[in-house]
Amino acid sequence: MMEEVREGIKLAGSEEFNVTGIGMSTGGRVNFEKGLIEDSTSAISGWKNIRVKQMMEERFGIPAVVDNDGNCSAIAEKIFGKAKSVDNFISIVLGTGIGGGIYVDGKLLRGKSNYTAEIGHISVDVDGPRCSCGYGCIELYASGSGLVRWAEEESLLTDIVGAGGEFSAKTISESAGPGNPAAVELLSKAGGKLGAAIAGLVNVFDPSMIVFSGSLVNLGAPYFDSFRETLLYRGMKPAVDDVEILFSDFPQEVGILGAAALAFQIPVENRFQLDLVKSISSRVSTPVIAEGRIWSPDQARAAMELGAYAVCVGTVITRPVEIVRKFASSLTDRDR
Ligand SMILES: [Zn+2]
């Protein structure tokens, strides 16, 4: 991962872009304030209490931010996507599991531990199958893994995809049609269950829009028509009647776009302020020492070029050997 980030920064530099922040989106439980991945999903198993923000900032000298991928999906829709002009909406990411993010009155809901909008873990059957968190969560029926699990439970898999066929949500949806009523029925039941779960959220949060993204936005009409019908039937009227149900413009990229948007929101006081150095250096005749938020040789060089007499590197106190080595190795003859 570090190598890929390094490559990205290099590429941006070669195109003459200045990288001012690193944004990361990940599955699992993220402590947003501390930039800590507390616990991961199976996709990146073993990531427990990883201080990924600190790791990135120390390695690259650029402010970093990390958030849960569901939150990032909602941020992406709000900043770049379908929800740009609405303040209340629910983003639903359909994939192997079900995640999402919720905006209320223009603000992303984070809760006390940044663990909101775990939409996949709304229980739709208190006596249902065991989930990692409890019983009968919607994810066990209406997600990619849930569709396969449910088809297996009802002994429908062979009916749907044939003996020896490949079992996945994609094959189930591709096979759904007049010749395969079992697949149509399963998708319809799954979409309906999700509609019932989301009706509960609509009743609680009063959104004006629901936006779907993720790898399974192509599950097709049996799933999404049933979702819409059940939502309208179960949601409280009249609030539910004018809820728009839309698909993302970039269903596979919501995580990465949301993370990028977060990186742009890193407070300006956390960035190295070139303008400030330039402004002070041009107005006073005494030597100016630029101190704080200077984490990379490039930033130090830029400060000197704008008139700073000397620079003090922000993290020199905590990791003196590492920092000195990094700066010493990047000095050119001109710097010396
Ligand atoms: Zn659950």
CATH superfamily of the largest domain: ATPase, nucleotide binding domain
Distinct small molecules? zinc ion
Mean pLDDT equals 88
Runs with pLDDT <50, length 5+?
none
SS field, number of helical segments = 13
Set down the secondary structure blueprint.
Blueprint: H1 2-14, E1 22-26, E2 29-31, E3 36-39, H2 52-60, E4 64-68, H3 69-79, E5 89-94, E6 98-104, E7 107-108, H4 139-142, H5 144-153, H6 157-161, H7 169-175, H8 181-205, E8 209-213, H9 221-234, E9 244-247, H10 254-264, H11 274-283, E10 289-291, H12 297-305, E11 310-312, H13 320-330
Parallel strand pairs: 1-4, 5-8, 8-9, 10-11
Antiparallel strand pairs: 2-3, 5-6, 6-7
The structure holds zinc ion.
Account of the 3D structure:
This protein is an alpha/beta fold and 336 residues long. The protein folds into 3 domains: 2-70 and 261-269, Nucleotidyltransferase, domain 5 (2-Layer Sandwich); 82-247, 2-Layer Sandwich (Nucleotidyltransferase, domain 5), CATH 3.30.420; 272-330, no CATH class. Helices cover 41% and strands 14% of the residues. The chain has helices at 2-14, 52-60, 69-79, 139-142, 144-153, 157-161, 169-175, 181-205, 221-234, 254-264, 274-283, 297-305, 320-330, and strands at 22-26, 29-31, 36-39, 64-68, 89-94, 98-104, 107-108, 209-213, 244-247, 289-291, 310-312. The strands form 4 sheets. It has a 5-stranded mixed beta sheet, covered by helices on one side. Strands 1-4 form a two-stranded parallel ribbon. Strand 5 and strand 6 form a beta hairpin. Helix 8 (181-205) packs parallel to helix 9. The longest helix is centred in the middle third of the chain and has 25 residues, at 181-205. The radius of gyration is 25 Å and the shape is elongated. The model has no long low-confidence stretch (mean pLDDT 88). Bound molecules: zinc ion. Zinc ion is lined by residues 121, 131-134, 137.
